[in-house]
Amino acid sequence: MRGTPWLLATLLLFSQLSWSSDGYQLPPDNLQQVVEQTSGPVTMLSPDKRWMAVMGPTPAPSISELARNEVRLGGLRIDPERLTPSRISRQYESLVMIPLFQSDKVIQLDIQLPEGITYISGRFSPDNRFFSFAGLSEQGAYLYLYELESQKLTKLKNARLNATISSRYQWLADSSAILFRQATNTNTDTRHDVKAGPVPLIKSTGQQKTPRRTYQDLLKTPADADYFQALTLSQPALVTPGGKLTKIGKPGVYGTVSLSPDNRFLLLTRLAAPFSYRVKYYDFAKEVVVLKLADQSEKVVALQSSGEIRPSGPDSVTPGKRSFSWHPAKAASLVWLQSADNGDSKQKARLRDELYQQDAPFAEQPTKIVATPWRITGVDWINETSALITQRSRKQQKLRLSLLQDNALTQWHERGLRDSYKHPGTLHKALNSFGKRTLAFDGGKLLHYGLGASDSGYQPFLKRTQINNGDSQLLWETRGDKYQRVKYVLNEQPLELIISSESKSAAPSIHHLNVDTGESRLLYQSPDRLSAFKGVQKQLVNFTRNDGLELSGTLYLPAGYQTSQGPLPVIIWAYPREFKDKSVASQVAYSPNQYLKISPRSPIALVSQGYAVFDRVAMPVIGEGNSKPNDTFREQLVANASAAIDKLVAMGVADRNRIAIGGHSYGAFMVANLLAHSDLFAAGIARSGAYNRTLTPFGFQNEERNFWQATSLYKEMSPFTHADKIDEPILLIHGEMDSNSGTYPMQSDRLFNAIAGLGGTAKLVILPWESHSYKAKESLNHLLWEQLNWLDTYLKPTSVADTAEETPL
């Protein structure tokens, strides 16, 4: 609540409600370099482990790509011409194939893609003959095949996908064909085909309580529902590598299309009309069907209710059967979950979930395999009768892993949901006789690899652990000044791995490592794309809250900077997280040996402009025992921020009068609260936040209570309620088409108007066509420009702000 200097406030009073039409701006060249880079490659291993695909992601798209025709229905954002998502999170523009054992010299085959094609959903065929992917163009998504031996790329012209709900497809076990969702409706321009004209929209309630979070892009009218069905309708079909097409079953709106391990049956989940106006498509009512490929006969195995009727509560689920899948170690056996408490986690119950199984031909009564006291969130099968079961209790903020054998559970591992120190990492899986991945479980031991988080930073590892007693054998770990991680286990005897490797000065690379001999072979080297940031200093900084809680963050300093040169302007960036355990809240997420990675959405890029950046600063909100974290939300935020500032000042890095606070989403909510309830910061940057919790009345983040149960809490936690106390300058940024739950663009607009009406200092930037996370290169460049100019204005010694502070009243 630092008072805005009189002169500056007067100057801004006449301009704070003006709107600029200058268009997109460009930041300095080194910040543009951050936008122009592409993220690191994604790799994939063939089933026989003899080929590795290296897939290069596309760079940030242009704003014209985001501005394409987009339809927002049922929680989906659809490109109606392509029948794909309008906003694909990651697609690829390059493809390199590396044969791992063909010669001593590493060979890289650069696959030339057709002009204008990017791709998604790459995978190898079971016989290792093909690499397939869904190629994206103006005409839609088509399946392509690359034959590894002949190096021939073929487009399957009959195989146009409807990828609106999913782009997943599946090879038959013998690689003779691909099962996919064929696009059936090429005339999707039916949005305004309402012959009867407008009709009234009528909604009514039932007797049951149906609290739901605040979602966007939902269906609103019967015409919406018709258009949703027209766009998402697909036909299950098989296509051979030669292009022969065979339709399977009937067209429908499919959530799941999955082959049984023996390839005799299809598991289908069809979304059932009438579609809901209150929940997203994945919560629509569904019909679960098993289709027999031989005669295409269908058997309905379940009718799943809409998520509208799901009880409230952090561990509640929709009553009835859910989460259907095929047992990967049996020829044709369905497995699913069913709640033992009618889905209501608020009911007192000894058991919460049950796991069921039913074998083909699905006529006998299903068999209950096991019942659990917590919700089952994962089943990793070992063989026909054994599995590793993951249970979760959000109420207790814990995860539990147990071994299922002989229909009984033996607990192996339990940790807090946010406890990274105890995380076992990735469990190694191997292909079984059906070509499905099941857990490698030799002599009661699991092979697993992970980051190895600890107080001293990440120490990636590979271990073999005995389940019954927890004894572990360390097989490999990163050493020296390198940060290395296991990507794949090629062989166990001798132990051969594919690892990624990087250091402070060396960009990430991929190696084939023989652990027994120590021989390492470079397979792929990522380019160094951030030459402008050479020499940037990075260090872990620990600090202590006033109640003794140990916290940390990662500090970035300009190349060559020393504290003898004096303090720097500082931007602190954070995201609040709730905890039930103080020890977990103190955990460190850091490695001193990681190569510098800078996202254009990260504040780290500002280090090149003379700023100290204190990133990923711990901002825990703790509620142990019966207390709830949010009961002291504001007090704990201020205590965290105050401790962080004290540390930076004591180090000689920061000047208390030149520190800003920034955050995205819930971090933006934190920013507005800190500006309203403390005098710690000179300015703030709040991106894509929600500031009025009465507009998210059925909960937010991990808050279980609704507005009517905790009215005063919702009001006290809402910075909108305290907009009169936000007397430091705040930059509000929001995507015009934010699809995240609760963070409507209206949230930023309303807070801006409140601050403006109360005489505060604020700037609102709405980024056209952007959602919750900004993507277009024009938006990202402008974002960096806005943030830099905001901080230069209020933190730099030569700024108008500092001149104004020296002006007497």
UniProtKB/TrEMBL annotation:
One of its GO terms (molecular function) is hydrolase activity. It is an enzyme of class 3 (hydrolase). Residues 1-20 form the signal peptide. It comes from the Bacteria. Residues 641-796 form the Peptidase S9 prolyl oligopeptidase catalytic domain. The keyword Cell inner membrane does not apply. Keywords: Hydrolase, Signal. InterPro entries: AB_hydrolase_fold, Peptidase_S9_cat. Its EC number is 3.4.-.-. It holds the Pfam family Peptidase_S9. This is Alpha/beta hydrolase family protein. It comes from Shewanella submarina.
